[in-house]
Design goal:
Elements lengths: L2 H18 L4 E5 L3 E2 L39 H4 L2 H9 L2 E4 L6 E6 L2 H10 L4 E4 L4 E6 L5 E5 L2 E4 L5 E2 L9 E2 L2 H14 L22 H16 L5 H16 L7 H13 L4 H15 L2
Parallel strand pairs: 6-10
Antiparallel strand pairs: 1-2, 1-3, 3-9, 4-6, 4-8, 5-6, 7-8
Helix pairs in contact: 6-7, 6-8, 7-9
């Protein structure tokens, strides 16, 4: 048996073992990104990706839709539809929120030092550039909550790098507070938009649910359909969203998470997403 075949078998057996322990898993392609949507869902022809609806598992036969494809079902993991993905897989990922967990991803030595001084001790896993600190409990995922720190829980995936060491403890309020601070930073306080008021008064049009939803859905589609220059497309899309909705305070963490998820499904890293968002905000003076 060739070495690649051994590696594929090892990924599959590890995935089945993790799933048996209640950890929803999915294969990662080269570059540590999820596999692209299956043909039936290409360019959202299936009617929309799961993160555009109520969060839940993907119902596609192949492992598409990123984090939503993660599963604990051995019949799915070991199915013919997933065989090609395991054959080409470069790594295994899991959906922390689906297992009732939150991962604090510390991406730099300074971030690890900060965590050691600030966060309660818990299970830790070594990464190539830092550590994962894993807690029991779920929360909204958030990127770049501070320098070198991302939070992976609901609607997110993270690489499986081993069981780690230490005893897992409950998700502390100090971690939840990081996401609250991030939301406040991303969503500006409501401001008065210069210009005449609508006839007879009324709210800013950006607060109309249908208007905002249509804008976010179009932005997701623009990112998903990018065939080249993905990084530039993500930045321009973030810029367009913020130019329309960034000054009225209507964007929420859920909206930005949808955009970040779409970008990551195209191969953008969480750091690139955070940088593009920050650069767009700076460009617009937000």
């Amino acid at each position: 048996m060739t070495q690649p075949a051994l590696i594929r078998r090892d990924h599959l057996s590890t995935a089945l073992s993790l799933a048996a322990d209640g950890l929803p898993v999915l294969p990662l392609h080269k570059g540590k990104v999820p596999f692209a949507n299956c043909p039936a869902c290409l360019y959202a022809s299936c009617g929309g990706r799961p993160h555009m609806k109520t969060p839940g598992p993907c119902t596609c036969p192949a492992p598409c839709h990123g984090w939503a494809a993660a599963t604990t079902d051995p019949s799915v993991i070991n199915s013919p539809a997933w065989a090609r993905a395991w054959r080409d897989a470069a790594a295994i990922a899991y959906h922390p929120g689906g297992a009732g967990l939150t991962v604090v991803d510390l991406d730099t030595p300074d971030a690890v030092t900060w965590a050691g001084r600030t966060l309660p001790a818990t299970r830790t896993v070594a990464t190539t550039r830092g550590q994962h600190w894993i807690y029991r409990g779920t929360m909204q995922s958030a990127n770049a909550v501070r320098d070198g720190v991302d939070i992976k829980s609901t609607m997110a995936y993270t690489r499986w790098l081993g069981p780690g060491t230490g005893t897992m403890t409950a998700l502390p309020d100090v971690v939840r507070a990081l996401a609250v601070s991030k939301t406040s930073a991303v969503r500006p306080a409501p401001q008065t938009i210069p210009g005449p008021a609508p006839a007879g008064g009324g709210e800013c049009r950006h607060r109309t649910p249908a208007y905002l939803e249509r804008g976010i859905a179009m932005a997701e589609q623009r990112i998903t359909e990018a065939c080249s220059a993905v990084h530039a497309t993500v930045y321009r899309t973030f810029l367009a969203v913020l130019s329309t909705h960034g000054r009225c305070g209507c964007l929420t963490e859920t909206h930005t998470a949808r955009l970040f998820t779409a970008a990551q499904a195209k191969g953008e890293s969480p750091r690139h997403c955070a940088d593009a968002w920050t650069n767009a905000r700076t460009k617009l003076g937000l």
